[in-house]
């Protein structure tokens, strides 16, 4: 589980690092609070990240940004996506 003590920037770095290491299938994001998190960071890194098949089931994405992400086959079942772009 992603620790609630981590701030938004550190959560993003953790998820990006685990994804790049091909460990996101083992990452439990169930009920994770990713509110106000800009998962896509193309503006700062110039990288379009491929999060195909990531499981974002039941997580809170309130006011988060998913811009510049490839999300083919991602699972958003019951995710809270109010004000998410």
UniProtKB/TrEMBL annotation:
Name of the protein in its database record: Uncharacterized protein
Top-level taxon of the source organism: Eukaryota
